[in-house]
Structure formats: structure tokens, C-alpha cells
Design a protein that fits this description.
The complex is a heterodimer.
Chain A: E1 4-6, E2 11-14, E3 19-25, E4 32-38, E5 44-50, E6 55-57, E7 60-65, E8 70-75, E9 84-91, E10 99-101, E11 105-110
Parallel strand pairs in A: 2-11
Antiparallel strand pairs in A: 1-3, 3-8, 4-5, 4-9, 6-7, 7-8, 9-10, 9-11
Chain B: E1 5-7, E2 10-13, E3 19-24, E4 31-37, E5 44-50, E6 53-56, E7 65-68, E8 75-79, E9 88-95, E10 105-106, E11 110-114
The chains are: A mainly beta, B mainly beta.
Chain lengths: 111, 115
Amino acid sequence: RKEVEQDPGPFNVPEGATVAFNCTYSNSASQSFFWYRQDCRKEPKLLMSVYSSGNEDGRFTAQLNRASQYISLLIRDSKLSDSATYLCVVREQSGTYKYIFGTGTRLKVLA
Amino acid sequence: GAGVSQSPRYKVAKRGQDVALRCDPISGHVSLFWYQQALGQGPEFLTYFQNEAQLDKSGLPSDRFFAERPEGSVSTLKIQRTQQEDSAVYLCASSFRGRTDNEQFFGPGTRLTVL
């Protein structure tokens, strides 16, 4: 089983739709959680950190469920510019510097 | 200011050749990471530096891979006797503090193709 698993997609959604991605992680000692965005042939960029209480940034909402060991990303009112690959990232445990990336979920927003 | 830069952007090597990939982090950033990203996959952790100290090299796939950051700024990832399976994009990232969980800023990557 992979340490961090994501549905690779692609998710094809119309503009204005709401779309949600999940990511599961295997290590219950995992400490920190993030979503990064990667455009085709570009470098990853931080989208948002994920906090235990859940957090929102504009149209984006991230949730963490420690009991079930998954994190989610919800995108509301999707825009063409949201088309990208969304990478789930987990730092495994306290004192480690190792960040584990998922394979990524590809989103395509259609006009 | 300038972001993370990497050179070369593209490298083609014959199998068995040695290569050196350079990373210039954002000035003042303490932490530096190297990742390997194969086509269709997420980045895979290779190694981590805090200033000049290599604190984690658990992700280096074999002893053919070596990384250094002698003055706590520029870093070089060296791959000896390259193999076809080394073909990937090598990403460097830096972050401000030694504490974990600061945002990582990635460079554009070096695309290595081993023939």
C-alpha cells in the first residue's frame, strides 16, 4: 500500500461546478498535511496547509479526518484556471524532514 | 526577489555517464530539499539539508546518488554511472527556516534523460 494515495483522475468538470478530492495516508503518526498544485510541466506550488479544524481560503476548503486518515480538498465555483494536478503531501512524523507526495489528482475544468 | 533556480534545465546523458545538477535556493533559506519526479508521479523525497548539514538522505535510491551543500547555500546533486531508470525531473525546493512545515518553494527542475 502506498503511503499517500490519491485518485489520479482525470476529473473533468464544467466551469462553476464544485469538485472534491480525497487523499488517504497510511501512517497514523503523520503530523502535517498540505495541498500543492502543479501545472503541466511546471513546479509544484503550495495551495494550502490543512489544519485539524479544517480551513478555507476563498473557493478552496481543506479538511482533515485523523480517525479515518484522509484529507480532502473542495473547490467551489471552479474556474478554467483551476485546471492542474493537485498533490496531497504529508509529513510523516515529528522530527522528520521527509515529505511524502501523492501521485496527484488531475483536474480539468471545461468551458 | 529571485526564486529557486536550477541548472541545467535539460540534460541528456549516455548510460554510465556522471551528471551534476545544481540548485540555487532563495537567499536566506535554511532548508533545502531534493526530489525526483517520474512521469505521471508525484515528487519523491531524496534528501534534506539544513544549512550545510545533510540531515536526511534516506530517499537517495542508491550509492550512485550524492548531494552536497558545502556552504549552506548552493547545492549539487550528483549521479554517478547513470542508468535509464534515473530518467526523471529532479526538483529542488527551499524553505525559510530550519523548522519543518514552512512553505517549500520549488525550482523549475532539471529534466534528465538517460539514453
